[in-house]
Amino acid sequence: MADSTTLVHGGRVRAAAHAYRIAVRKWLDLSTGINPQGWPVPSVPAEVWRCLPEDDDGLYMATTAHFGNTAVLPVAGTQAAIQVLPGLRAAYGGGMRVGVLAPTYAEHMNVWRAAACTVNAIGIDEVDTSLAGIDVLIVVNPNNPTGRLIDPAVLFAWHEQLAARGGWLIVDEAFVDATPAASIAGAVPLPGLIVLRSLGKFWGLAGVRLGFVLAEPDLLNALRAALGPWHVSHPARWVAQRALMDRKWCETMRVRLLADSERLSALLATHGLPSPSGCALFRWVPTAHAAQVHDALARQAVLVRSFDDGLRFGLPGDELAWSRLDAALGEVMR
């Protein structure tokens, strides 16, 4: 059985540098889907580093304003919540048959399997016929790595069927912030609906390890108890409050990211790598030659994510990075 230490994720530049004998500083890392033009973090006051975090520091008001409801809990990265949810489901005494809309972020399937649940990967065309046989459905929307986006109306229909018999719909919206109309976070709290959000992707703040869970108050209270006190650091809370309140930056960044995603799609197509799907933060290239292209790009010190059936390209952060990618693709794909 796999555990979280055996799963490979993006951003492992040091490992790539070691494997290819290329210095870390020379790499163009397009492997994560994290915004390379992240929110500009101001200097953190010294007292923020000295003091324990407090719930009444203003973050709650910022999150409720941003997400449009009050049923939200900050957590030390959404992965922290993903790890705990199987145990909470067991504590509730609900069924543990789990369906994961695949292919997708592997940690979801990993943690439920580690909790001795029956877990099945489900294709998008199989959901309607599979719902009767599962108790928990997990959907990443937009999907990672393909960028597939499911209409909120479809998600609500699935949720209605699950909730009618005590089931859960877990929607991981880590990449949705650039397309907020696709989010269903504003519908929380609804019985059996759990929405995960991240500060790491759109804001480019993965290093602060901060995410949010939106769910029914009883479930949030159970999650808070499971995680314990002070599970989100004071500096992370301080940064998050200000980032969430910066509406002008968000509006400007949404326009830029969507434009850059289209630019990346066009660039890939010119090099014989059509990208039929993606989201604002990455493009998906289905190809049977993923491993070969990934290796060839790595030899040019360009790191992308490779999967069995395709490649995921993150966005270059500046014009030099765009030129480097163009040149590397020209060398690899000629």
Keywords, please?
single chain; 334 residues; alpha/beta; Aspartate Aminotransferase, domain 1; Aspartate Aminotransferase, domain 2; 2 domains; 7-stranded mixed β-sheet; 4-stranded antiparallel β-sheet; 12 helices; 40% helix; globular; disordered N terminus
Structural overview:
The protein has helices spanning 13-20, 46-50, 59-67, 78-92, 106-114, 127-130, 152-163, 217-227, 234-245, 247-270, 290-298, 319-333; strands at residues 28-29, 72-75, 97-101, 118-122, 136-140, 168-172, 193-198, 211-214, 277-279, 282-286, 302-303, 305-307, 310-314. With 334 residues, it is α/β, with parallel strands linked by helices. It folds into 2 domains: 13-39 and 248-333, Alpha-Beta Complex (Aspartate Aminotransferase, domain 1); 46-245, Aspartate Aminotransferase, domain 2, CATH 3.40.640. Helix 3 packs across helix 9, helix 4 runs parallel beside helix 5 and helix 4 (78-92) packs across helix 8 (217-227). The longest helix has 24 residues, at 247-270. The radius of gyration is 20 Å and the shape is globular. Residues 1-6 have low confidence and may be disordered.
How would you sum up this structure in a few lines?
The protein is built from twelve helices and 13 strands. With 334 residues, it is α/β, with parallel strands linked by helices.
Query: Which CATH class of the largest domain?
Result: Alpha Beta
Note the run of SSEs as H and E: HEHHEHEHEHEHEEEHHHEEHEEEH
Strand-pairing-aware structural class: alpha/beta
Approximate strand percentage: 15-25%
State the total count of DSSP E strands: 13
CATH topology of the largest domain: Aspartate Aminotransferase, domain 2
What is Rg?
A: 20 Å
Biggest sheet strand line-up: 2-8-7-6-5-3-4
